[in-house]
Design a protein that fits this description.
The protein is an alpha+beta fold and 320 residues long. The chain is 44% helix and 15% strand.
């Protein structure tokens, strides 16, 4: 890459979320030396210019280190910056996470006293740096942070929604315990629970519902109707088709259970005697109960407040 192209790339990177910066010629020599891993020349440039560097030039120097080096070279270059009085700022912590630097580089910036904000925590979640998501949360960063709506990169994502997309139940538990809002939506209306539903992450879906996740049915595409070929849901599942999860109704003569969430319409989870699980949706219209999963619809008759039957099956309510 020639110098002109490198200048353009660096300026574009820095302009993304950092104030506009300018530079003298020596800063581009610094960038070239860092890109080549020539730390001896880096040391010489800093020694000759550190005392007269402007704040903007120091900002460029730190950004160059994080943009053009990796691994141990980054750590050594950061030590040179420290030796010449050039300190990290919060943007450098963002840059280290965004550029997927090794943990010791991030730790080195934290050791300088830099503290994360919500944007840095969200970036860590985007990069699936879950160790730092935990650390930044414990340091007080906003777990419910979203990119501002007026930003071109705003999408409404939160750390919790990223964790749901990644099927990371441990992280979801951690974030909820630290104040994550389970009902926040992305710009296209998705929630952590609706995404878990669509991906078949049953444990995550159930955990979120148990911790207050509500109002997701309208965010999901309605499955196509099918008769199920006259088979009941349990017969279809036990024959090897993906199954539903545990709940509040039990199949007569069996250990199979269905749990319904919602009033009149909502989600269901089914678990058969073999422990196979799947989730779906349900709707009650009059005395007709309709269950849908995997694009197949089953119809039952509501017999009363605590039972329903049909397709050769009788289900009885056993509790909440």
């Amino acid at each position: 890459m020639n110098r002109t192209r490198r200048v353009i790339v660096v300026v574009l990177v820095l302009a993304f979320r950092c104030p506009a910066l300018s530079a003298d010629d020596f800063t581009w020599d610094l960038a070239d030396s860092l890109a080549k891993g020539d730390l001896q020349t880096v040391d010489q440039i800093l020694r000759e210019n550190a005392d007269r560097m402007t704040t903007a030039e120091k900002r460029l120097a730190y950004s160059f280190v994080l943009d053009y080096t990796r691994g141990e070279t980054t750590l050594k270059a950061m030590e040179l910056l420290w030796n010449y009085g050039i300190r990290a700022i919060q943007f450098d912590l963002f840059n280290a996470i965004n550029n997927s630097h090794i943990s010791t580089v991030v730790d080195r910036i934290l050791d300088e006293g830099i503290r994360p904000n919500g944007e840095i925590l969200l970036t860590a979640a985007e990069k699936q740096r879950w160790d730092f998501v935990k650390l930044f949360t414990e340091m007080g960063a906003d777990v419910n942070y979203k990119y501002p709506a007026d930003k071109s990169y705003a999408d409404g994502m939160t750390a919790l929604i990223h964790a749901a997309n990644s099927n990371n139940l441990e992280m979801i538990r951690f974030l909820v315990e630290h104040g994550a809002d389970v009902n926040l939506r992305t710009d296209d209306g998705a929630t952590a629970a609706s995404l878990a539903y669509e991906s078949g992450f049953v444990d995550i879906y159930n955990y979120l519902v148990d911790h207050g996740a509500v109002d997701f049915v309208q965010t999901l595409p309605q499955p196509e109707n099918s008769s199920g070929n006259g088979q009941g849901i349990a017969r279809l599942i036990d024959s090897g088709t993906p199954v539903f999860t545990s709940g509040t109704y039990r199949l007569s003569g069996s250990a199979a259970e269905i749990k319904f969430t919602g009033a009149g319409a909502g989600y269901l989870s089914y678990k058969n005697t073999a422990g196979n699980t799947v989730i779906g949706v349900f709707q009650v219209t009059g005395n007709t109960l309709t269950l849908t999963t995997e694009g197949i619809t089953f119809t039952y008759r509501v017999d009363g407040a605590s039972s329903f039957s049909g397709n050769g099956e009788t289900w009885t309510r056993i509790g909440d």
